[in-house]
Each structure stands twice: as C-alpha cells, then as structure tokens.
DNA sequence: ACAAAAGTGTTACGCATACACCCATGC
DNA sequence: GCATGGGTGTATGCGTAACACTTTTGT
C-alpha cells in the first residue's frame, strides 16, 4: 500500500493506461432571498436514475473550458439571464465531490459551485417546462444523487461567509435599503438581528456599503422611507459580524 | 450561447460523445512547522515539462477511490509514514484547479488538498532520492504547473482557519506546550503574539486543549518547564482568535 | 548572576448587546 | 390614531491589547 505504484505517480510521467476516463461536471447551488425565504434553484429530473426527483442544475465541463467557465455558462442557461447579467453575479467554487458511486451510471467527478443572486423576476424567459425553478429551502423531498449533501455544504458555507465578508450585498439589487440587507442575514441565518446594532455595524465598516446621494429615500411598503445604498468596495469584514449563539456545525 | 446544447446538460442524459476523457489527479500542499519555520513538502521533477523544478506531490485518482482517498494514499507514499499514522493526520480539500491549459500534455483536473502534519522525524524512510522533502516556505524557485497558485491558496486557507478553528493542534505532536502551540500561530501568520493573552485565550476556550495530568511539567530547552496539553474535543473557536491587523487578502 | 521562557495579575479600551426613544409613512 | 419600519442615542458587559511582575530552569 505504501509502495509507489509505477505509472500512477505524476512526477514519473503519464501512463495512458494508468487511469480510466472520468467525466467532469459542475453542479450549482444557486441561492436567492425571495419573499423573506431562502430559495434554491432546482431542476426536476426527467429520467432515471432519480426520475422525478429534484436536482441541482449542472452539466459537463467542455473540453476547452475551465470548471468555473462551465459553471457560469450553466448558470446563464438555467436562469435564462443574459451572459452580461450573469457575468456580474457572485459565483464561487464550493468543493469537489468524487465518491466513485455518487452516480450509478459511470464515474463522475463534480465540481460544485455556489451562486448568490438577487431577487430576479423569474428563473427563465422561455416556456420550457424542464428548466430550473425556485423552491424554498427545505420544502422539497430528498434530492437526486448526493445533492442534499452539496446543498447542505453550500448553505453552511454561505452562512459562514456572511460573518466575515461583505457577501450579503450579492443577494441584493444594485440599490437596496439596510432593511433588505438585514433581511438577507436573518433569512440565511434563521435568526433575528437587532436593527440599530446591525445598522451601526454596516455603516461603520469602511467600504461595506455607500449611500446613494440623489434621492435620499424610497419606500418598500409602509413605514418610514429608507435610505438607499450601493455595495461598497470592501470584500472582507473586520471584525466579523458573528451570528448570535454562533455554533455553525 | 444561452440556448441549451443537447447532450451537454446532465438532466437530459449522458451522451458518451459529449465529453473527452479528463484525467483527475490530486495535488497535496503539506505543511509543517519545523525549526520555527513553515515548511512545505515538495518533490523535484525528473522530466519535462518543468524538469528540475519543484512541484507539489500528487498523483492520479484511481478508478475505485475518491479524491480524498487518493490524497491520503499519496500522502502516505510521499511521507513514507504508515497508513495508520497518516490516517490521523489532518487532511482537507482545498479546491479544484481545472484550467484547460494547466498541464501542457493533456487535460488534467486536479483536486488540491491541504495537509497539516507535526514535526516528523524525516519525510521518508527509504533512500529513494526522488522522494519528497521539506523546504522552508518561500525558499524555492517557481513551482511547476500552477502549483505556486495552489500553494498560495493553501497558505491563505491555513492562516484563515487558525483564526476560527482549533486546527493549530494538528501541527503539534500528541502532547505539546502552549509555547509550541503559540509558535504555530506565529510561524503561519508571521507575527508575534502576546504570550499571556494567548495563554488566556486558549485556556478559556472550552475544548481547545486539555491539560495532561500525570507529569505536570517538562522542558524544551532552557527556561521554566512548561505544562503539557493534549488537543481537545472542540473544532470551532468562538469567538475567533483574529490575527493582529488582520487583513487576509 | 544572568538570560530565557512559563505563568499570574491588572488596567484600559473597543466593540457588541440590549434597550429606550423619536421619525415618517400607510391604513 | 395606530401599526410598521427607519433612524438615533445610551448604558452595560465581555473580551482583547498592553504591560508589569513573579517563577523556574539552563549556563
């Protein structure tokens, strides 16, 4: 077991018979905050295995593209958004899932990505029934393949990243209120935050958000009109904004 | 661009001609703290491309193993340690590197792993010159392939994880002093920490370390003998131990 | 005696928490 | 008026930073 097997170690060169072909795919865990709930983009499988079950959108990595390029291409296809719109969305590699039996048909190694999108009109433009749609997180049965595990990892990652990055703005439209931003945290973390303290934390963090000058206020329903902000330049958050009673695992 | 291409989307089934064979490998970024320096396990390439350059150890994922199993197998091979010893080392998936041109010979998708090991006797037991050896971080020329980028990502990840996990104990032998543990932080972060404050932080965090009862003290050279500790049960660190002036990127 | 490292104690400050309170709008 | 959400102010407490001091070894 410990002895090197000739042909399987890279530094000694490639033996074309030392490996079987692997399929490499990407899977997407796409989140949005919509109607005060965390929603996930899913597709319904049309054939075996797992026919009828919900699954994460995804597809093959093409011969001349990186996994990241494949993920963004698939994201554009599944959401029906323009390439330029998708180019600005937050897309981040999660991790790679490589269990030999994760797909019963063949050996598939999948690089999972997490995407955060604002509350878009609707997933797709066409009427294609096989396309992806939003489902509130946790309201679907078991997902196909190992997608439940992928989605759980993605949710945990997103929740953790809200603590020490400015990532929450990725869930918001270009201009947003602090109430909307706070809604993101509360929805992803499943907790309530103190409004005054949240406001201070965000406004005193340099580069988290920047005030929109022109119209100093706008309404989202009833209540006092709120000031509008844009995402700032900063990406990190020091010190972090820890979730209350934060035990993450 | 936005239209679905038949055969490339997974939910519509597998087209055996929709993809070319990808080779899937693992690369290992193995760190240790040794002689008050951060050291990296590297191998010297024996042939083109990048002949003579240092590279991360790694190898192919075999048809019936996961990437994680492949990483642990390679770690055992490169370090020459027994499988049971390697089974207890901290090994963690970093991310996957999939640029189509990252290897000039063929399409190789590599799942990178980060391993943290204590100050081991010497990397290997045999006399094989082609085996891996420790080099102080930053003292080698440019690495082969995209391994400089992988190693930089790994270093950043390890530094960040020390902030909010109990991972530092993975660099230490089974029993260690608080001075040794502090040395880990100082070496990885490249800063000096206040000894009394570090001590308090570690001891007041439940489950970070646990005191070794029997012999209450032991020496590591000159100075007052220090108490010994073992790694505790906890994995997370709340609140985190932030590095001074912590700008991580 | 001196240096070096472990261990204890103390103070000050920053930040987060937990409130109380006022403002502006829709109904 | 009342409910709802935005915005401001303030007291309290925890945790870290900074630093002084004692203890115990090797040389």
UniProtKB/TrEMBL annotation, chains A, B:
**InterPro entries linked:** NUDIX_hydrolase-like_dom_sf (IPR015797), NUDIX_hydrolase_CS (IPR020084), NUDIX_hydrolase_dom (IPR000086), WH-like_DNA-bd_sf (IPR036388), WH_DNA-bd_sf (IPR036390), WHD_NrtR (IPR054105)
User: Does the keyword Hydrolase belong to this entry?
Assistant: yes
The cross-references to Gene3D superfamilies, in alphabetical order and at most eight, read: Nucleoside Triphosphate Pyrophosphohydrolase (3.90.79.10), Winged helix-like DNA-binding domain superfamily/Winged helix DNA-binding domain (1.10.10.10)
Which chain positions lie within coiled-coil regions? none
> What residues does the Nudix hydrolase domain cover?
21-165
Alphabetically sorted, this entry's keywords are: Hydrolase
- Entry protein name: NUDIX domain-containing protein
Lineage, uppermost ranks:
Bacteria, Bacillati, Actinomycetota, Actinomycetes, Kitasatosporales
